[in-house]
């Protein structure tokens, strides 16, 4: 009865988790949820646009003072930005690595393929890429103001209205938000499954929550360009 | 019935393969899909051609040997194994595509035969309870709640056919692996090795070249034994728990 | 009279290993008297195990746990697929958890009686003793047996017994037990103590200086024929039911390993003892490639009937109660639908022969659940038999909740096999046979849920104890390189494969198998007669000659060639079938699964003739088509007095 004892594994939990497909997927789930939480706050903040320039700009200013006096001016924002940047990078790198692995694991296609999965599920990969590209443009437009037609520091309301004054920006934005909705619809439920929070009993609740979050965020974000286009916001 | 079959023919692991078309006639709707292939093979032999190689054995849906992708679906249009799929689910004149399981971890051996030994290596990495013969306590020493026993059974039904891998767009073995993890981890007998089992099996699964799970659910739809998708969620939880606890 | 039937009776054969004394102490005494191998020396010994079913899988795992080096083979692509996996109903054990009067003694008694007094008492008693340990072992492995709400194991009753001692895992008990053994084996494979060769088929036995020292096996993927050496060889290759072509066995289950061992000198015992299972799905046409069993457990709640009138073609629902004949309940009131398999099968044949069979060709009887559904409710029936009903519906496209099932007997199990002594050793020293491959424990008829018990008893507990004695008593030496016996075995295997490929005739291998199977089913199936058996014995050599003249095997031997595999197995069936018929011809009594039309009671029951036939017939091979030599092992019944079985 000579069975070898199990060999010691790598000491670091993070390194260990990162090296398995299940662990990497868990990283994607956690970072996805972080970004999702941020998006909910972001979307709610956006809706302040409907209360006029004064309130919206004051809100933007308040964000920079949040956490004070413990935190220095804008520190809170930079912490949020750092967490988000790390999440985006980890989410993206993990997705890239897992996708490469997945594609290698299934090198040949079938002659005939019946897709039995939802559209949201099938578009996760390309949807993610679209969202990544959108994010770059979105930051250049409304954070760094590099491509913003108004580009006035400290006047987010005016910058936003100027940006959404262009029809193609609205199209890009709305398409991106639809992609976001689809991504969340599969992503949220998928995260629950990946983190092992799901169970047959909770499955329906998680799916419903995923649908609700997807709809809420898409509608909430899309409301702003529509508001600008229809002149409610000007 | 008269059918047109387009079947993947591949001489051996190193050769290139191609879809080849055959016409078969005189197919009865009571035939199983494999009996239909038997019929074709008998004709091929008499015509001096090589019959189509395919794995099969019990022909009653339990050994897990058979399996082919029929019209893009693992085991065909019904939720069952290929041997239990009957021709009454097809219509006269149908064109049927028959392909082997496709996954990097399941290389084609010949025609529709693939090498699924990667599954055995996953089981060898922890899919057991270490109880040498003779070391067992009296069977009633540990009562097992009926719910746990039933849950274990539901997951132990896996026949290791590989349809889950074949159906998964990522060639992932998560459903197979998780079925065994759940079966043994919900039982008190499996508890002492609860952590090492899931950690060992997941890393074996990764080493064998299977893809990861993107929660498409294709595996559970294809599974002839109805192993639920929730097994994967449970395995994920077990894995994360074990990762944290492992030291 | 063909030359083959002029067999000679040689010296009797006897088991020399079972100790004398009280039967309940024999197993303990044998284990104590057997020599042991020092744990440090075990790793120097290699044991070959052929087959990975319940017997082989459990034996391989256990021998490796004990420290032996195991080299194991299976023709399937994974050891998990051995045909034990298809066993449905359950496994017997004398646990007496029900407090219903069960005991080791009763299981022993039931098995000897159920086997119609043609089994060796010592072996059967040991089987009953070991049965309780099997359940413990399997539960500890995580086998998910059915449980009650209190968390304790559930049991059910099975044909031929009046206690509830059958442990089960829904209708998939064999699967769950096999996976338990497979997992234990996988653990050893991963640990490097078992060298596993899947997709590798044993094609001959290597006997050196009178001892079994290895096998010749073919890699089914590359076609390479290789030799493997060991200190002992264990055959766990299952039964030979596939000789009938249509059976409930897996398509690739075959007799080659045991038949090749027989050709090398191992006696083959009681080949005519084949079991016909009463509850299989009837065949639907000539395309049929195998038959599917419906678990015998269905007889617990289903009622078997046929119309009283001949040729009644009404739908079952249209036949009123008083025009139905529940013939098992009528003829055998105390056991009713739960009579042993041989009796249930023959009764079904009788009513069909009378012209009262149902379904296409009149080859079927009803197994009706209407009463059970009324009594227990559909949900309860579904919980108990759901997967079987589903399987039935899938195959027949009929809903058994609405329409009674149609069933008919089919070949299911073979009680005969290689003759073994109490240590499970064949007449070739160093060659052991376990599970269905041997002849030992079931006599002329096996009780339901006893095959799993025997396979696991042999593999987990019996062989791992007895093989030590052989290994300890024999020198541990290498087979000399280039020994002529090795070259001869390889040459015979390769020569035979080349001959098969060279015939290039005009008939497929399967067509011969089908023809042989039909012949055997007609003449050596549920009822056998002198005339029929002689007819078969005349036809088989002709068929064999025709096979070698007309078979067509495409492809080459250096590749995966399933036609070649099949043809190679049929060669052995064509020889084995002849021995089965001869054995059936010589045994002019009826017993268990062997029913001779000439030997029946006035009311048509089997009439056993103990004065002449209370022996196991062990046949010695003398050459293809030449008369074998019969060696009798007299059976002594000290504890269970033979009586005419009565289930009335």
TrEMBL record, chain A:
What Gene3D superfamilies would the database entry show? Fumarate reductase/succinate dehydrogenase, transmembrane subunit (1.20.1300.10)
For this UniProt entry, which segments traverse the membrane? 26-45, 75-98, 119-140, 167-192, 213-233
| DNA repair is among the record's keywords | no
State the signal peptide span.
Answer: none
Q: What is this protein called?
A: Succinate dehydrogenase
**Coiled-coil residue spans:** none
UniProt entry keywords in alphabetical sequence? Membrane, Transmembrane, Transmembrane helix
CDD domains noted in UniProt: SQR_TypeB_2_TM (cd03498)
Any single GO CC term annotated in Swiss-Prot or TrEMBL for this entry: membrane
Automatic annotation (TrEMBL), chain B:
Q: Is Iron-sulfur one of the keywords? A: yes
What is its cofactor?
[2Fe-2S] cluster; [3Fe-4S] cluster
The record places domain 4Fe-4S ferredoxin-type at 149-179
| GO terms (BP aspect) | aerobic respiration; respiratory electron transport chain
* UniProt-listed SUPFAM superfamilies: 2Fe-2S ferredoxin-like, alpha-helical ferredoxin
Annotated family: Belongs to the succinate dehydrogenase/fumarate reductase iron-sulfur protein family.
Name of this protein: Succinate dehydrogenase
Q: Highest lineage ranks of the organism?
A: Bacteria, Bacillati, Actinomycetota, Actinomycetes, Kitasatosporales
TrEMBL record, chain C:
Q: Topology in the membrane?
A: Peripheral membrane protein
State the UniProt keywords alphabetically.
Answer: Cell membrane, Electron transport, FAD, Flavoprotein, Membrane, Oxidoreductase, Transport
Classification via SUPFAM superfamilies: FAD/NAD(P)-binding domain, Succinate dehydrogenase/fumarate reductase flavoprotein C-terminal domain, Succinate dehydrogenase/fumarate reductase flavoprotein, catalytic domain
Needed cofactors: FAD
Mention any Pfam family matching this sequence: Succ_DH_flav_C
InterPro entries (alphabetical): FAD-dep_OxRdtase_2_FAD-bd, FAD/NAD-bd_sf, Fum_R/Succ_DH_flav-like_C_sf, Fum_Rdtase/Succ_DH_flav-like_C, SdhA/FrdA/AprA, Succ_DH/Fum_Rdt_flav_su, Succ_DH/fumarate_Rdtase_cat_sf
Q: State the GO CC annotations.
A: plasma membrane
Top EC class for this record: oxidoreductase
The domain of life is Bacteria
Active-site feature positions: 341
Query: The FAD-dependent oxidoreductase 2 FAD-binding domain covers which part of the protein?
Result: 47-452
| Any one of the GO BP annotations | anaerobic respiration
Show the GO MF annotations.
electron transfer activity; flavin adenine dinucleotide binding; steroid dehydrogenase activity, acting on the CH-CH group of donors; succinate dehydrogenase (quinone) activity
Q: Where is this region: Disordered?
A: 1-22
The places in or outside the cell where this protein is found are: Cell membrane
Please list the reactions this protein catalyses: a quinone + succinate = fumarate + a quinol
Tell me where in this chain the Fumarate reductase/succinate dehydrogenase flavoprotein-like C-terminal domain is found: 513-647
Q: In the Enzyme Commission scheme, what number(s) does this protein have? A: 1.3.5.1
Family named by the database record: Belongs to the FAD-dependent oxidoreductase 2 family. FRD/SDH subfamily.
**Protein name, UniProt field:** succinate dehydrogenase
The species this protein was found in: Streptomyces caatingaensis
